[in-house]
Design goal:
It is built from 3 helices and 5 strands. The chain is an alpha+beta fold. The radius of gyration is 14 Å and the shape is globular.
Length: about 110
């Protein structure tokens, strides 16, 4: 529980310091897509997605699926470097597109 609070504080702090304060902000983020299981033991148990940026910060990615289901669009990119385009909605990125990362030098490393 403490770990989840710490992760949430890091994500919220990162988002608050990195983007303007308006409710909906355009964002393009390059990073490594990974997931963690949330709501463990409940009927809402499902993966929660994050993008780890090159500087080691984690940005939550809002799933388009129902809270208790997996998001197939995100699942196919798990464990790869991606470019995610969308809008910041609070502490999470509501994505409009996701693709394998190949636009920046950081993304080319390791491919």
């Amino acid at each position: 529980m403490k770990r989840m609070r710490l992760i949430a504080a890091v994500v919220i702090g990162f988002c608050a310091s990195s983007w303007p304060a308006s409710a909906d902000d355009k964002a393009t983020i390059d990073g490594f897509l990974y997931s963690k299981l949330s709501a463990i033991g409940s009927r809402s148990e499902a993966p929660r997605y994050f993008v780890q940026t090159p500087d080691g910060k984690d940005v939550a990615v809002e799933s388009r699926a129902q809270p208790y289901l997996d998001d197939p669009a995100l699942r196919q990119y798990l464990g790869t470097k991606v470019t995610v385009v969308g809008e910041m909605k609070g502490a999470a990125l509501s994505y409009s597109s996701i693709q394998k990362c190949d636009a920046t030098l950081w993304c080319k490393i390791g491919h």
